[in-house]
């Protein structure tokens, strides 16, 4: 940054440490990255007291709006405010365009894979994915074999986690195709930032995200059974004790649709209906935020009290659409993840635009042997865990923890993969009264309906604990607004005229 600037206080970028990591806003020469010049200049012009005041106002707004999440097993209280940091992440339009192409490519291939797996299983017959990986996957649903979802689309709403290594390479860390959460924080973060820095938005030409609920509603309407001109859409939630209940209610409110629990629904004459004061009302599309196991006790877990008995039969008969389709979890099994680049080549005959993190499959004897010999250098993940659980970060683990994971891998090798420890990129974050670098990832959201839409930016999650690589909210992470910087207004006008 400008070394000639003087500032008696600590909230400036002079002396900010970028050594050893890729920083999303400031390069190794202490210069702003593409698209970040205006943001950093404006922040340095603001007095410390004003920056801290705006941070406090943002946190107060989150509290007043009730933007919370629930932490299971937390004895200090169930409901927590999701931490937010005022310094946004910036992505230049050129980089975003490549990521957008890569995400669309990936979701097309994953959708073709899911459809193949529940029909002809050609990819298994052609030995691109070992059959044992399918048969041993906890997320494979035999109940979905032969089902044909509307328009052949299984994965309607996806959250794909991206990370950047110290050399600047962006990788796909994992795919979330079951009930991906977090998009409500994207929308609320943007609302708060626009209120805090309206002039920066106008000057920076930040691409919008607040139209997401409208786009989601259009997608859900598109899935409705044929012949229904004005379909009834509802959001199916497990209830107030679910960790993402705030998001369920927020999205339902934003779309103008009903928020329902399983007990509010019943199968009547073969159709899914809501109980209302005026009798039964048919539901045509359910945006479900309940995992497969719990949506229908007749088809999956008999002890589920959250689902709707008979829902799968109505779905199979084409009398209701479900988003995401049951069975999509097979594509976000962390072992299947290791084969996604091959899936892209097999189904699309293309090379992956965004690569996977190099991955070792512990079921393979040679790869398992390498993993066990290098646990101090690797990150080990369980195939079906989420939220940062079921994971070992080898370099930060104790000898006892590594020994425990070695036993787990040997007991059930199919359940584990391992990856090199990436030096996740960092970004300036307000820590007390100064800027410090904190590690981040990025979760863009993809909607797959009549076409594929990628929400510009997505959720930047930040590991607020110093040195931590775990960004999940349940383990101390927070979030930032993500700005995709579009072309200048003059360029946009020129493009429209041309």
TrEMBL record:
Q: Which domain of life is it from?
A: Bacteria
Bias (Low complexity) occurs at 487-498
Every copy of the Circularly permuted ATP-grasp type domain together lies at 88-463
Chain spans, region Disordered: 473-498
Q: Name one Pfam family in it.
A: CP_ATPgrasp_2
Q: What is this protein called?
A: Circularly permuted ATP-grasp type 2 domain-containing protein
Which organism is this protein's natural source? Bythopirellula polymerisocia
